[in-house]
Design a protein that fits this description.
This protein is α+β, with helices and mostly antiparallel strands. The chain has helices spanning 88-97, 111-125, 130-145, 158-169, 177-184, 188-199, 203-221, 225-231, 237-248, 252-259, and strands at residues 2-8, 11-20, 34-41, 43-48, 51-56, 59-63, 69-73, 80-86, 105-108, 150-151. It has two domains: 2-151, Jelly Rolls (Sandwich); 158-259, Arc Repressor Mutant, subunit A. The chain has a seven-stranded antiparallel β-sheet. The chain has a three-stranded antiparallel β-sheet with strand order 5-4-7, with no helix packed on it. The longest helix has 19 residues, at 203-221. The mean pLDDT is 80. GO terms for molecular function: DNA-binding transcription factor activity; sequence-specific DNA binding. Keywords: Activator, DNA-binding, Transcription, Transcription regulation.
Length: 260
C-alpha cells in the first residue's frame, strides 16, 4: 500500500492512496473525507448503506462523507485501485457547488476522464498557487462526476440524523445508551435497530469508527502511538491496533511508517 499527502502549507487538500493485491479494510467503515475510488484492475462488491454494488476496472465510485461502506474484492490476486480523499474543510464547498443529492454514485471512466484525473494529481504535485489547485480539483470533479451512471440514494431520517450528529459531537466521551435515550426520548432497542438499519452500524460501532478516523489524523501530527490511542478514546493499545487495522488494513505503526 502506498500513501501520498498533498499539502499547501498546513492545509491538506488531498490524500491519495494506491493499493494492489491486498484488502484495505476488513469491516464496514467510514471516512470524514469525501472519498473517490478508481478501480484499475479486477472487480469488487461494494456495500453502501446495506445495499450492494458491483464495480469493475474502468469505473469509479464516489462515497459521501460519514457513509458506512465496505469493499470486498472478487480476487485479491487481480486487484488494484486508487483512492482520493478530499479534506473535509474543502469538500463542503464542492458539494454545495455540485448538487450533493446527485454527487454519490458509480461512474464509468473513459480515456479523457483518466487524463483529467492524472492532470489533477500532477497539479497537486506542482508549484501552482493554492487557488489554482483548488480550481483544478473542483473543475475535474465537476466534469467527471456531476452525472454518475448510477446514483446511490442517501436515505435520511430526521431523528436518526440528529442522533448521528450527537454521536459525532460527543464521540470522545464515554457515551451510554441512556444518554441517547434521555436526549432523544427513544427506547434502547429502537435506537439500536433503527440506527443500524439506517447507517449499517450500531451507535457504539459508529462511535468506534469516528475514534479510529480521529486517531488517523492524530498519527499524522504525533508519532507517539500510545498517546494517540489515549487521546482518541482507546484505553487498550491492543484494541486500538486491532480496530485501526480492521478499518485501514494497516496497524497504526505501519501507517505511521507509510506517511513519513
Amino acid at each position: 500500500m502506498s500513501i501520498w499527502y498533498y499539502k499547501i502549507g498546513s492545509c491538506k487538500l488531498l490524500e491519495i492512496k494506491k493499493c494492489q493485491n491486498e484488502l484495505q479494510a476488513y469491516k464496514d467503515h467510514l471516512h470524514e473525507e469525501l472519498s473517490i475510488g478508481f478501480i484499475e484492475k479486477g472487480a469488487t462488491n461494494l456495500k453502501v448503506n446495506g445495499k450492494e454494488y458491483y464495480i469493475k476496472a474502468g469505473e469509479a465510485i464516489v462515497i459521501y462523507p460519514f457513509v458506512s461502506h465496505i469493499c470486498q474484492p472478487i480476487d485479491l490476486a487481480n486487484w488494484k485501485f486508487t483512492m482520493i480523499y478530499i479534506n473535509k474543510d474543502f469538500y463542503k464547498d464542492i458539494l454545495e457547488d455540485l448538487n450533493k443529492s446527485h454527487f454519490m454514485g458509480i461512474k464509468k471512466l473513459n480515456d479523457e476522464d483518466y487524463r483529467k484525473i492524472n492532470y489533477m494529481i500532477d497539479t497537486m504535485k506542482g508549484n501552482e498557487s493554492l487557488i489554482e489547485k483548488e480550481e483544478k480539483i473542483v473543475s475535474v470533479l465537476a466534469d467527471i462526476f456531476i452525472n454518475c451512471d448510477i446514483n446511490i440514494e442517501l436515505v435520511k431520517d430526521k431523528q436518526l440524523e440528529e442522533i448521528r450528529k450527537y454521536i459525532e459531537i460527543n464521540f470522545l466521551e464515554q457515551l451510554k445508551l441512556d444518554d441517547i435515550v434521555m436526549h432523544f426520548g427513544l427506547n434502547k432497542f429502537g435506537i439500536i435497530r433503527s440506527f443500524k438499519n439506517r447507517y449499517n452500524a450500531t451507535p457504539a460501532a459508529y462511535q468506534l469508527q469516528l475514534r479510529v478516523n480521529y486517531a488517523k489524523h492524530l498519527i499524522e501530527e504525533n508519532p507517539n502511538l500510545v498517546q494517540v490511542a489515549l487521546n482518541s478514546g482507546f484505553y487498550d493499545q491492543a484494541h486500538f491496533t486491532k480496530e485501526f487495522k480492521r478499518a485501514y488494513g494497516l496497524t497504526p505503526k505501519q501507517y505511521l511508517k507509510s506517511i513519513k
